[in-house]
Records
---
Amino acid sequence: MKTISVLGSTGSIGTQTLEIVRNNGDIQVAALAAGSNIRVLEQQIREFSPKLACVWDEEKAAELRRMTADCPVKVVSGMEGLIEAATEESAQIVVTAVVGMIGIRPTIAAIEAGKDIALANKETLVTAGHIIMGLAAEKGVRILPVDSEHSAIFQCLNGEKAQGNRIKKILLTASGGPFRGWRREEMRDIRPEDALKHPNWAMGHKITIDSSTMVNKGLEVMEAKWLFGVELDQVQVVVQPQSVIHSMVEFEDGAVMAQLGTPDMKLPIQYALYYPRRRYLPGERLDFWKLADIRFERPDLENFPGLSLAYQAGKAGGTMPVVFNAANEMAVGKFLKREIPYLAITEIIQEAMESHKCKADPVLEEILEAEKETYELIESRW
């Protein structure tokens, strides 16, 4: 019997994680944490009987306490509550599916408490990878990737690194998003509802917008650097529109290993929860008789500058990836609220990076300060 905590339980990854729990009889839920959707969280509490539930806002938490007064659950709030959910004593694995840099502190706390991390919060490694990976190694904690691309790489490397086999490069695949092939001038009037129509994947709003701008792939490039111990130049993005190949690894002898499957996030989630074991997962299977071809393209850096800005941020290192991430988070939020046009997202990222004085090897407080400064800069100019 495995016991897990799920941070971000009402979002896309969180609800699919709980679907896996529902379909298997050997996972218990110790803690759940959500941002504000207490109606869904109440349903989850009643179904999965966690010891602890966290809601970010204390007023919402108070309302949830009233709603679940008949349940044996402790309801907490804020960052302290999120950390309490991440470190719940009985949990063995913490699924970090919250969105944004809010995931850094609870992830650090969970690692310090000796919990394995099923990582779906890419911002944690993008902004604090030098802290997270070192701490995980020190504590003997496993970082198990949940992103489909990083899970694919992880699966391709299973057994290879133990034999000392060296990676030549990682081939990180991308669908290209809903605007693949568009020129920048064609994107001027894109609305949030247009950008939220991903051709292959069903994801949360923020990551879907990030996919449309290719910023998400840039974040994944930086995340891959930390997860797999490679240089940024060893991570090559390949557009694969059908989302059949989830990523590939080329070894020094020229062999390329790939992980293929239908675009279903439950596969990488379940693989992380049961690693190293595989077990049956219901769903559509890849049919090679129906698959006419698999196409590959170069990423369009001219019309989707978010990816090239990510490489720049990753190579600069220090606090620059923090600025890239924070600027994108705020810009996407403003776009979803219709406060800025679509093309302003990457313009804001570039302006924030150009205005920033980078600090090398930042400690957690410096990371959070860089985030705050970036938010203040954007609010003052946009």
---
Amino acid sequence: MADNAPETSDDPGPVSRRQRAVGLVATALLALAGLFTLHDFLPALVWAVVIAIGLWPLYHRLAVRWPKHRRGLLPALVIFAILLVFVLPLMMIGFPVFKDAHEAAGWIEKARVSGIAPPPFLQHLPDGAHLTQLWQANLAQPGAISGFASRAMQGSVLEIGRRFGAAALHRLVLVGFMMLALFFLLRDADSVAEQLRIASRRAVGPSGERVALQVVRSVQGTVNGLVLVGLAEGLVMGVAYWIAGVPHAALFGLLTALLAMVPFGAALAIAAAALALLIGDQFVAAMVIAGLGFVVTFVADHFARPVLIGGATRLPFLWVLLGILGGVETWGLVGLFVGPALLSALLLLWREYVAAKEGPLNDPSTAS
């Protein structure tokens, strides 16, 4: 009777071309549906990946030294350190701004009623007498800026406040999600890296793993070039602000460090510090700060950053700059790191394709 029973097997047999095509389409649809579901959180996830890659060399050394804590205490300490380094400075900037908001509103009201007296630094500028006359005619008269002040103090202020509060709450949620994702990325970094390595080899062969490694090196070089150089610029200029007598020198130095991470951003903070000195009738000090700021940013943007970023990404300076600016234009702030990494990967693929220059994807022994 057993001999007459129908044979059954769990083996589905070979996969047909049609089944493979249907499987690929279904996989693509599932992937698109997943991305659409998470699209509001994708920037936070990308930031978590970028920060994890940038911190990985330091984190790996700590994990080797204290292996028992690599899945608990060490990731938690990294999150705490990030909050300490980045969130506290932002709070230091934000609290004085909110504290002075009432004084600013009072100053606007006073200016609306009485006008704004011309600042003394106008006399030091070329054609200063004419500029002072124009200021007297347009801004120093009572009621001259009433239209501007009315728009600033009335009408849409509540609506702007609501939008700002909603946007701030949304950003706070994204930052919290990013920190949570970063914790799990660091905790399970070895497992995630191994899975990505297997997936890249199955998808495109050994070259995919090499491209991924080059992208990782590019992100690390970009983090070093932007973050570390930006912090150094802020430190140097912060000391200069303090010596020159810039009001709130520490806050201006911190603002310079944060803006210096964006190409040409430090110039805005330096110009604001110089303007604060001009308003205080410290013309010479303002010129010194402007000149020193130009030198510091020139050295940072044309020497330090190209060495750190270009050396890791293997990109010429022009392509580094285009990658940063194009990345910011396309992806927002996270494009600072994504842009150069993408261009670096494309350049490596091009080198392999044309076999014109040795690189991680161009093995001279296999060239024809």
---
Amino acid sequence: MLLKYTIMIIKRFYFVAITFLAFLMYSCGERYPDHPWEWDNEDTEKNPTITAQGWTAANSYGELPAYIQVYKSPDQLSGKKAIAYIAVADMAKTSFDILGDVAYSTEANGYGGSALTTPSEFYQKSKYTIITNAGLFYAANEFYYSQNLVVRGGKMLCINQNYYSEDWTKLWYPTVGAFCQMQDGTFQTVWTYYSNTDKVNYYYPEPANNDIKKEPLEVPSSTFPAGAKILNATNAIGGVTVLLHGGEIKNTYVQEMLDISAATNQPRTAIGYTADKKMILFVCEGRNMTEGVSGLTTADVAKVMKDLGCTEALNLDGGGSSCMLINGKETIKGSDGKQRRVLTAIGLK
């Protein structure tokens, strides 16, 4: 009898101890997202340059195509506490698309769309394996104006914003970044300008050297800046700040002029392309949604993308818009506390 009661006491003690331990883990640990994460520390062969830097492969998003891998960042990036994710896709096998119902509206006298969409809604419609937010936009008169280029299937649907002013007296005409899949299948970041005079979308190997602290430069054209070509892309998405071009860090937010708080720590989204023909989509958390995680500057993101092997990279919309879904599952904590509705998204499958 004594043995029986002793066993019962031990069992009860064990149950209480386990329950208390679970409570501590529940109370102190991060609970977002609400699905279990598993990390495959053995995945070092597919992308050894990435895993050697402490990025850890994820294997709990459901089935992924063999040509797409997902990784979580080490605890720090650029010396800052970080929570970031990347999707790495072999572009010889991956379908790449720009999502969003956008076009030129005669009624609104501008490029954009009449509705916004959450990344999860994009996923429900398209079932793309990877979805991130894409270009910048703003609302006016019940229309959502795209500030960024969109090319889909060889058709230009929106242009990059081709003017900037603080007082509508003095105007600048910046060349703004774009990530392009060219008709020959190559990918590159460029600076673009749509000429209202020529009705042509030009792209350039270097940006017009505008600066809000200086007088405006001439309107971009077929001769300025040097090296202009007509953009004939299969797919393209605009952003603000070319991070990498030709393997070199650029970080041209001053010249591109649209305000993205580039020099402060923020949630960020970026797209890049590597020398071994892989696309990398990057997203990082910020604004202390997780304690101590304030985000990254665009200079930080440029360095991270270069370290990951990218030769071309573009900063996309960030802040509350930053989001990455893997098979429809969230990764970072969005800084709005929920998914922000956006005009455009990037899809990989």
